[in-house]
Each structure stands twice: as structure tokens, then as C-alpha cells.
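User: Some background: our group keeps a shared notebook of sequences we're curious about, and every so often someone picks one and asks for a predicted structure to add to the entry. Today it's my turn. The entry only has the sequence so far, pasted here. Could you supply the structure so I can complete it?
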Amino acid sequence: MVRSLLIALSPLTLLAASCAQSTAGDSAPASAEQLDVFQVTPIVTLDEPWAMTLLPDGKTALATEKAGRIWLISLADGSKRAASGTPKVDYGGQGGLGDVQLAPDFATSGRVYLTWAEAGPADTRGAALGLATLIQSPTPRLDQLKVIWRQSPKVTGRGHYSHRITFSPDGKFLFLSSGERQKFTPAQDLSNNLGKVLRLNLDGTPAPGNPFASKGGISAQIWSYGHRNVLGLKFDALGHLWDLEHGPAGGDELNLVEPGKNYGWPLVSDGDNYDGTPIPRNQTRPDLAGPAISWNPVIAPGDFIFYSGRMWPEWKGQALIAALGAQGLVRVRIDGDKASEQARYPLGNRFREIVEAPDGALLVLEDGPGGRLLMLSRK
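Assistant: Of course. Here's the predicted structure to add to the notebook entry:
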């Protein structure tokens, strides 16, 4: 039996949490408001969960764990079944099994896309994108898994894979975030696919009409560049693509992603390097695409959604961010190509993932060992 847990904090507690994380750029400090809007229902406990999507029935979640497992989870009773056929992942640091998304034609094909960290030669590794058919019963498995894209080049280290997946609103193209792997300068180099947002055909090949297609090779995959570590990638209701990415020591960003634009990393940031060396601010380079909002101190974002308004009509069209550093949810209003923070909802843990249920409730994944899948609904 799933047990409901009610969380309520006083306005003063929430105000303190909000003010402790001031924002930069065009943002303003979050307003204080009651947290008792949420009824929090634990569903199931996982081990380092990373990503989640819902099956078309709206009653079953497909969730990944970093170490390499994929679970089919019943939202009704919290029961879970592990799927076989998962790829061998290079687990460690930020690496492991990453995103999972249903193909646009999942209802007829049963196909799913997933990403993971893949080992290479000489202590190198990089993200991979695969396509498989999900067989749900009697025992779940991923059938005929095939790698259709890889980060290039594979490099040393175990950070900044990014590897978030989304699809164009018409279902014809796959967009993929590819982190700069903590190597900085590849983000500005169009001959590789590190530090980029990519636009691909559904088979993983470069989509026609990409801004650098005339250069051929890997350049033909690139939609935008100058990115650091993109952990959220979503289209809004108007068909605009947005990304959510980690800055260094300060400077997390929400960006309106447009074709061919340079988003500045590592040339500019609203944060500085971890060793304290300064980085020129975004506003010093008007020739580069600046963020819609940035945070300093950071919120350390996980994934995000654009909310439908089904359960909280007053939030319709706003971005709801699962935050690791802010340990809860951050709500952001979009105004054209700018954004402003509206509120924070501290929930006492790091949050990696957020998905909207069919009725407008929020499904969120806590980060780390023992991370829970929670359902947030209106009280």
C-alpha cells in the first residue's frame, strides 16, 4: 500500500530557503509562499535513479538507474520489474545509464531510445545513444539494442556527458544534448560533437537542414554549440526548444536554443572556474547567445518540464525544474526569450528528474542511493 506523506513548511522556512539562493542576470529572488500545496506520496525506492518516462497507459513508469538497470514501475502499487538486455555501461563519476525516452511511434513500434556512458580505449569514454524494442511481458527486456550515435571523440574523465533526449513536436527529429566532458574548449570546435545540442534523424544520422551541414561529417549533426553540461532539454507549447545546463562555480542557465547559435562556454559564463579564476560575464559578449535566466549561487538543475496547468492552472506554461543543489523544485515563468524565477519548493533532498502525470500530478526522482520516486499532487 502506498503511504501518503504530507510535507508542510512555514512561510518563514521557505523564505529563508529562497533567499539563500539568490539569482543572477534578469532573475529576481524567489517569492515566499506556503509549501502545503503538495501532498507527497512515495511510490518506490531505487538506486541512483537518473531518468524516467511514462508509458502510454499513464500508469507505468520506465526508469533508469546509473549502474545499468531499467525498471518498469507500476504507479498504482510501486511494484517494479527489471528489464534485461540493457547495455554495458561505464559506471563511475557522472557516468552510467542515462536518459530513456519512448520513440514517437512507440504505440505501434514499441521502440525506446536510451543513452549511457560507454568505455573506449586507453581509459577513455563517451556517451552513446541506442535504440531498442521494449518487450513488456511476461518478463521485460530490451530487444535488438543498437547503438545509433556516439560522442566523438571519446576522452578521459567521467563527467559532463549530458545525453538528454527530446523529440521535435512533429515527431520527425531527435534532439540530443552532448556535454563538453569537462574539457572546456571542444564546446567551441565544430569538428567534434562535444558541448553541443544535436539535431538527428530518428535513426541517429544528421538531420537535413542543420546549420553546419555544408561542413559535412560530425559538423552536420550540430544544432547549437558552446554548451557546458545540459541536463534538461525540452520543447515548450509554442514549439521552442530550451535547455537547462550546469554552470561552473555559479552560472547555471536556462537557454532558448536556436539553430547555429553559440552559447558561449567556456568563453563567457555568469559563474567562475572552480579554482577561482574569473570568466568574463555573458553580458560582455553580445555577439554570443545569452541565457534567459542564470543562477548564482547555482541551483544545480536536473531535468525540467513545461507544465500543462492541469492540476495547478496558475502554473500553466511555466518551467518546473527538479533541482539537485536547491533540493526541491524551482518554478520559472517564461516571457518571450527571457525568464524569471517565481518560487522554490524545498523538499529536503536532491532531485534528478521530473515528469508530468496525465492528471497533472508531478512525478519526481530523488538523486543518489535510496532515491525515491515521489508523486506530488495538490492538497
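Suggested note for the entry: Helices lie at 11-19, 106-109. The longest strand covers residues 125-135.
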